[in-house]
Design brief:
The protein has 136 residues and is an all-alpha fold. The protein has five helices and no strands. Helices cover 52% and strands 0% of the residues.
């Protein structure tokens, strides 16, 4: 649409044709639609929970003092660009809503999702071991 808007007719028709061909040939999936519906249902059933303290932004001294942002792990500071930090409220911990299909790009998304889950589990285990070694 933007290409057509920018270059106009008749050349813009080719951009629209390219998009139509790409979309008609792309593998179809309703994985995101299913995840969205599942999350929506979960939100209707569950009360609104507070945002976990570690991902709250401490914009004032008082917020920092009461624990906002304490334990936050910035993924860009880690070699894997993934942390073991939990970002969901307790009632959603461990739940997964998006289940990518096994075709096309979704297959790669599924592989990346599995890789992230393995990394997070390893980082959590390493963090627990590290915490158990620290003197109290």
């Amino acid at each position: 649409m933007q290409a057509y808007d920018f270059i106009g007719a008749p050349e813009g028709y080719l951009a629209l044709a390219e998009a139509a061909v790409y979309l008609s040939l792309a593998p179809k999936s309703d994985a995101v639609y299913g995840a969205y519906n599942e999350v929506s249902g979960e939100l209707r059933r569950s009360p609104a929970e507070p945002v976990p303290m570690q991902i709250r932004n401490a914009v004032t001294g008082l917020m920092k003092k009461v624990g906002y942002g304490a334990g936050y792990q910035h993924a860009h500071n880690y070699e894997e660009k993934v942390t073991g930090m939990e970002c969901l409220p307790d009632s959603l911990r461990g739940k997964s809503f998006y289940r990518p299909g096994s075709d096309g790009f979704e297959q790669m998304l599924g592989e990346r999702l599995e890789e992230i889950q393995r990394l997070r589990e390893r980082l959590r285990r390493d963090g627990e071991r590290e915490a158990s070694r620290k003197p109290s």
